[in-house]
């Protein structure tokens, strides 16, 4: 059986590798739809709140109103220096590669899976007309190819 849950968060990013409008700092209202494989063990399988109690606070703490940034982006060093000099604490979600929607899908798939959920597919909506569907096969293939990895361990909230 599949349970589907939806979440939203706002975040800024840029893709410094591109030579188009996405090279500029800009933001999105990201929408994610999680598709979980669950097993019925009586009258129900999993409470919706089991997902919400972990995923909602995690997205709020680490993603919402933050900036997704590649640690190799020259802007990253500038922002870190700014934070040190001015004592500001900007919310930076570090990536080991470009902050493309594909890499965001991989990172979120990893983090949600590490929370103990059996995620089978993740849809990430970047704009009103652009959605990527990322499934367990994509995730396993990307992990085997080591195309992307996180900089810090996932901290799932209880």
Automatic annotation (TrEMBL):
<comment type="similarity">
    <text>Belongs to the PTPS family. QueD subfamily.</text>
</comment>
<dbReference type="Pfam" id="PF01242">
    <property type="entry name" value="PTPS"/>
</dbReference>
<dbReference type="InterPro" id="IPR007115">
    <property type="entry name" value="6-PTP_synth/QueD"/>
</dbReference>
<dbReference type="InterPro" id="IPR038418">
    <property type="entry name" value="6-PTP_synth/QueD_sf"/>
</dbReference>
<dbReference type="GO" id="GO:0070497">
    <property type="term" value="F:6-carboxytetrahydropterin synthase activity"/>
</dbReference>
<protein>
    <recommendedName>
        <fullName>6-carboxy-5,6,7,8-tetrahydropterin synthase</fullName>
        <ecNumber>4.1.2.50</ecNumber>
    </recommendedName>
</protein>
<comment type="pathway">
    <text>Purine metabolism; 7-cyano-7-deazaguanine biosynthesis.</text>
</comment>
């Amino acid at each position: 059986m599949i349970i589907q849950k939806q979440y939203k968060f706002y975040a800024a990013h840029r893709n410094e590798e591109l030579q188009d409008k996405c090279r500029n700092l800009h933001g999105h209202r990201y929408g994610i739809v999680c598709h979980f494989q669950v097993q019925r063990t009586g009258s129900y399988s999993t409470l919706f709140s089991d997902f919400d109690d972990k995923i909602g606070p995690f997205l709020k703490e680490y993603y919402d109103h933050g900036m997704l940034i590649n640690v190799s982006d020259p802007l990253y060093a500038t922002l870190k220096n700014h934070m040190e000099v001015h004592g500001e604490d900007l919310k930076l979600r570090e990536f080991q590669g470009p902050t493309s929607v594909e890499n965001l899908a991989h990172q979120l798939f990893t983090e949600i899976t590490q929370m103990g959920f059996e995620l089978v597919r993740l849809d990430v909506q970047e704009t009103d007309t652009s959605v990527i569907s990322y499934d367990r096969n994509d995730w396993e293939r990307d992990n085997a190819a080591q195309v992307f990895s996180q900089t810090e361990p996932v901290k799932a909230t209880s």
